[in-house]
Amino acid sequence: MAAYDYIIVGGGSAGCVLANRLSADLHVRVLLLEAGGGDKNPLFAMPAGFAKMTKGVASWGWSTVPQRHLKGRVIWYTQAKVIGGGSSINAQLYTRGNRKDYDSWAEDAGCDGWSYRQVLPYFIRSEDNQRLVNAYHGYGGPLGVSYPINPPPISHAFLRAAQEIGIPFNFDFNGAVQDGIGHYQLSTRNARRSSASRAFLAPVRGRANLTVRLNTQTLRIEIEKGRAVGVTVTSGSATETIRCEREVILSSGAIGSPRLLQLSGIGPADALKGAGVGVVHDLAGVGGNFQDHLDLYAISECTGDHTYDRVAQPHRTAWAGLQYLLFNTGPVTSTLFETGGFWYADKAARSPDIQFHLGLGSGIEAGVAQMKNPGVTLNSAFLRPRSRGTVRLASADPVAAPLIDPNYWDDPYDRACAIKGLRLAREILRQRALKPFVLAERLPGDHLNSDEELIDYAYRSCKTDHHPVGTCAMGAGPNAVVTPDLKLRGIDGLRVVDASVMPFVPSCNTNAPTIMVAEKASDMILGKPPLPAAAV
After folding, report:
1. What is the mean predicted confidence (pLDDT) over 289-316?
2. DSSP 3-state assignment of 501?
3. pLDDT tens digits, 475-511
4. Strand extents, DSSP E, 65-105
5. Nearest-5° angle of CA 285, CA 286, CA 290?
6. At what angle do helices 511-526 and 116-126 cross, to 10 degrees?
7. Angle at CA of residue 525, ends 256 and 100, nearest 5°
8. Which of 48, 90, 344, 513 is the most exposed place for a label (fewest CB within 10 A)?
9. Within 10 A of 313 (CB to CB), how many other CB atoms are there?
10. Residue 533 has pLDDT above 80, yes or no
11. What is the structure's pLDDT at 326?
12. What's residue 390's pLDDT?
């Protein structure tokens, strides 16, 4: 029977970081398990390729349960099923959030060691920034971070339009100030996606003490006498148990990690019994505290060919491919959402609570009526939801999809702020700077203006921003699942390291924070002292 020192369950962003950092100690044997396949398809490397990869072979194909505060809407819920996880199929936005996000982890959730000054060095350690080196940024790390190569003119007009309504320009959302509008930093290097798989895992795949198994689904964690001692997995038609001598590290994400814990009999006793699972360890917080960013959007028709809608035409697709292969330029180098920013719906908020993503096309979102000209999309997401949802099992069958319930808009405050964010997006698109580019608003449409009309539009069109967190939250409270050193409460030899441990969702895209969590966790697991706190 095979045995390892560390078994990492889940080859997403956190899992790839852990595989790199833990296997750097050549005296330990590390196994990384991933249910999905490899990322050799060229579309994974192309920045614009994510638009083709978020369904099908790279996704689990899950959806939410009907959302009772969204008139029963069922929302497609993309969860990556590929090595690199979300970092292999996302829009590659490298955002860290606000310093107050992490200070709140430490002060409000009791997560000692996770304040902004204490986590910033781990962001910097990962980073290979194309332009910046200062108190907030570094270079030489595994993860490529760069700015957009050639944003089209409408992107620059958008920056001016936002400034016309009073939102200042910001060159670096990850620096001293988050507020403002600008071009995002991207997890790309040399016009190629810098996923966690390519940045952290690929360079160390040859280490003799690291084993990577793809297309291998973990069915349960094996618990003996209150300790995690291994995992049972299936690959093809074969099922086996793999022993672990030090720690099982669960890194399957905010949906996958609570799901596997519950399949292993770890979670709220009543929920486990209701799903037909025997209770091994009654832990109330598992699968609770679910938080996500809900996205609303406005779409305008352009006056001409200002975005990338027509690149889908065969001759334009061929030319775009040649531009990319020969010159590393053109539409394929775009993440399609490379411009945006952070501002306020609630003017009393402690930090920005709305995030904008400028989408360079209209076909990016579902349900858009055909327009004569290309379109432009402006997404707005409320960043600090008060609503909390759950991840539960539908049954004890490990193949069954989980019951994903973000419980969007359970708190009316979330709805009110989201509608304010949508109004801001519409206002930006109507500014003078965009007049040469924007013909007219098509969604929601100029005829919809009251809160009631916009709420009804949101019911029909809203979507997830794919930022689930919190379902195995760390902290000191009664519903905390893991301690601040990410050890599962009540079970030895088991940690959780991924976005599920975040007690509150950060006010940003969540890939960079997830990588930071894994960087910090790797030092904890190896018994290294934490990096010195930043001076900023």
Report:
1. 90
2. helix
3. 998 999 999 999 999 999 999 999 999 999 999 999 9
4. 76-77
5. 85
6. 100
7. 70
8. 344
9. 11
10. yes
11. 66
12. 98
Cβ proximity of 300 and 429 under 8 Å: yes
Q: For residue 199, give the DSSP letter.
A: I
What's the token pair of residue 415? 């709805």
Whether residue 51 is predicted with pLDDT greater than 80 in this model: the reply is no
Q: Tell me the sheet residues that pair with 238.
A: 235
Cα angle, residue 213 at apex, residues 208 and 215 outer, rounded to 5°: 165
Give Cα separations from 284 to 213, 269, 390 (angstroms).
32, 7, 12
Beta bridge partners of 267: 282
Catalytic option among 281, 293, 306, 467: 467
Q: How far from 460 is each of 74, 295, 401, CA to CA, in Å? A: 10, 12, 24
Q: How far apart are the first and last CA of the chain?
A: 50
Q: Look up residue 294 and give its amino acid.
A: L
Phi, psi at 235, each rounded to 5°: -145, 115
What pLDDT is stored for residue 367 in this prediction?
A: 47
The torsion defined by the Cα of 273, 276, 278 and 280, in degrees rounded to 10, comes to: -70
* Six-digit token string for 233: 């997995």
Average pLDDT taken over every residue of the chain: 95
Q: What is the mean pLDDT of residues 133-162?
A: 97
* pLDDT, tens digit (0-9, with 9 covering 90-100), for 399-408: 999 999 999 9
Separation between Cα atoms, residue 202 and residue 196, nearest integer Å: 9
Task: Report all structural domains of the chain as residue ranges with CATH numbers, in order of start.
Answer: 1-48+78-141+193-289+468-536 (3.50.50.60), 144-171+293-465 (3.30.410.40)
Nearest to 468 by CA among 419, 505, 437, 431: 505
Determine which helix (DSSP H) or strand (DSSP E) holds 376, and give its type and residue range: strand 375-382
Q: Which of 184-188, 287-291, 322-326 has the lowest mean pLDDT?
A: 322-326
Phi, psi of 101 (to 5 degrees): -60, -50
Token match 């016009």: residue? 191
What is the pLDDT at residue 316? 73
Q: Is 466 part of the annotated catalytic residue set?
A: no
Question: How many angstroms separate the CA atoms of 470 and 77, rounded?
Answer: 16
